[in-house]
UniProtKB/TrEMBL annotation:
Key words of the record: Membrane, Transmembrane, Transmembrane helix
Organism: Cereibacter ovatus
InterPro entries reported in the protein's UniProt record: Phage_holin_3_6 (IPR009937)
Higher taxonomy: Bacteria, Pseudomonadati, Pseudomonadota, Alphaproteobacteria, Rhodobacterales
Keyword Membrane belongs to the record: yes
Segments passing through the bilayer: 54-70, 76-95
Membrane is among the record's keywords: yes
Protein name as it appears in the record: Putative superfamily III holin-X
Length: 126
């Protein structure tokens, strides 16, 4: 039989290569996890900041509208008229906000794409 036998050094290098591969894959998975966490945190901060600004603007606008309307119809009627109008508008805004929040994607798309590319590359290499 003329089958070539592997030397101990060749076997050792295969073991080393497999160990290196395992370490690299572990590092890659950790890095992808960190990227996913960073993306989700960034999206959450952006949503929270936008919500805070909307709430602040709404309160300031409400006070300004009551003050302006009170000059035309009297201080007793201004809050009632404005409250009714704002209830109608608020219902529409809430409906739109629920729709937008439902459509907002908190899925870390870049991480998902990168993980897919990494998996495809790993399959090609093996």
């Amino acid at each position: 039989m003329d089958s070539p036998k592997r030397s101990l050094a060749e076997d050792h290098s295969i073991v080393e290569l497999l160990g290196d591969l395992a370490r690299d894959l572990t590092g890659l998975v950790r890095a992808e996890g960190q990227l996913a966490r960073a993306e989700i945190a960034e999206a959450g901060r952006s949503l929270a900041s936008g919500a805070e600004r909307i709430a602040t603007g709404a309160v300031l606008l409400l006070v300004a509208l009551v003050m302006q309307l009170a000059h035309w119809v009297g201080p007793a009627w201004a809050p009632l008229i404005l409250g009714t109008a704002l209830a109608l508008i608020g219902g529409g805004v809430i409906a739109r906000g629920r729709k937008d929040i439902g459509a907002a994607s908190l899925v870390p798309e870049r991480t998902s794409e990168q993980t897919s590319r990494d998996a495809r590359l790993a399959r090609e290499q093996i």
